[in-house]
Amino acid sequence: MLRLKIRVRKQSRVVRGWATISPTYLAGDIVLVRGYSLISRLIRLFTRSRWERPTVVNHVGVMVDSINIVESAGKTIKHGLADYNSSRDTIYIVRRVDMTGWQRIAVAKKAETYVGRQYGWLKILAHGLDRLLGNIYLFRQLARMDKYPICSWVVAYAYRQVGLNFGVYPWVADPDDIWDYCIEKESKQSFQVIFAMREGRGEWS
User: What are 120-168's pLDDT values in tens digits?
Assistant: First the structure.
């Protein structure tokens, strides 16, 4: 069982302090992050189309069980979600509610195949160049190297393993595409926000 310092809303009642969240999370749950570092801001800038509203998130990962997340940031790693407990970033965790158990297992297994791979920095450049040219799919087509994933690549290809997508091809998906699909578009009906950790609080709400 995993214990985190969280704040949980339940039936309009706020419970503060230590609470047990396992097995609240499931394999396949998506972790969306809005960071405030320079790199985070640049990623949001490079993944924003010319006429698009400001990008909300710059990073994404996927839960592979009730405790661990796989994400690509410098290197693709698997680690405990508890590592985010002291984060000052804004974090959302969303769940595709119509996924079956076998789909969740398959998503987790696919995500774990990327663990240990180096980050694909050139893919970020490709995303930025395509966005500058009106959100075309030119440079991202040329940067389809599975050996060097970025965060959204890991999540999109893990979901592709079970025939699911985020409204775009997996090799062109970025964190904002996944945010839009899960939160803002009509497809949001298939998703549920499980938790959100607001900027600077370092606690779950």
Answer: 566 666 656 556 656 555 545 545 555 667 899 999 999 999 999 999 8
pLDDT score for 70: 97
Degrees, nearest 5: CA angle 197-58-192 = 50
As a three-state string, the secondary structure of 179-205 is HHHHHHCHHHHHEEEEEEECCCCCCEC
**CA–CA distance, 186 with 168 (Å, rounded to integer):** 14
Q: Are strands 8-10 and 13-15 parallel, antiparallel or unpaired?
A: antiparallel
pLDDT tens digits, residue range 18-63? 233 444 899 999 999 998 888 787 777 766 666 667 788 999 999 9
Number of CB atoms found within 10 A of residue 81's CB: 24
Q: CA 154 to CA 66: how far, in whole Å? A: 18
Query: Which CATH code is given to the segment(s) 25-197?
Result: 3.90.1720.10
Global pTM value:
0.76
β-bridge mates for residue 15, sequence order = 8
For residue 56, which of 40, 72, 71 has the smallest C-alpha distance? 40
Structural tokens at position 44: 């949001």
First to last CA, the chain: 19
Task: Determine the 3-state secondary structure of 71 from DSSP.
Answer: strand
- Domain limits, the chain: 25-197
